[in-house]
Write a structure and sequence with these properties.
Layout (H helix, E strand, L loop, with lengths): L4 E4 L4 H17 L3 E7 L4 E6 L2 E6 H17 L4 E7 L2 H12 L3 E5 L5 H6 L2 H8 L3 E5 L5
Parallel strand pairs: 1-2, 1-6, 2-5, 6-7
Antiparallel strand pairs: 3-4
Length: 141
């Protein structure tokens, strides 16, 4: 079996495009796909509506984001939804190393103009990952 491909998502339309590219690559290479969302800090907020009580958590929200991308982009294909704590690039790289990924797919959001000077997840991942990195063009229609 081929090594996994990991795609970083955050719920944005550009991340969805990156997930579509990762899905297509995973199918072509026969690799398992992991959809990963990072959260910086797990904050927990108790909520109550009427007699209903529950807890909202950024960790739960991140996991739900990854699961939603799996449902909406991957569909019936095999994919793992995962989330982890940390700065997005660092958490994505750590997860890829943990599962022995052959490739990380990220979108090119914030890679143009003044934003590229300030940095981006794609830039950080491409400079620090220990595996191959594919930067998907998410600006194209």
């Amino acid at each position: 079996m081929a090594s996994p491909i990991v795609v970083g998502v955050d719920g944005s339309p550009t991340a969805r495009k990156a997930a579509e590219v990762a899905r297509d690559l995973a199918v072509k290479l026969g690799s398992p796909l992991h959809v990963f969302t990072a959260y910086v800090k797990d904050s927990v907020t108790p909520m109550k509506v009427g007699t209903e009580e529950w807890v909202a958590s950024t960790a739960d929200d991140a996991q739900e984001t990854a699961e939603r991308v799996v449902r909406n982009v991957v569909g019936d294909g095999d994919a793992v939804a995962a989330s982890g704590q940390g700065a997005p690039a660092d958490a994505l790289i750590a997860y890829a190393e943990e599962i022995g990924a052959q490739l990380i797919v990220v979108g090119n959001q914030r890679m143009r103009g003044v934003s590229r000077v300030l940095g981006s997840v794609a830039n950080s991942v491409s400079h620090n990952a220990t595996c191959d990195v594919y930067i998907a063009n998410t600006y194209a229609d």
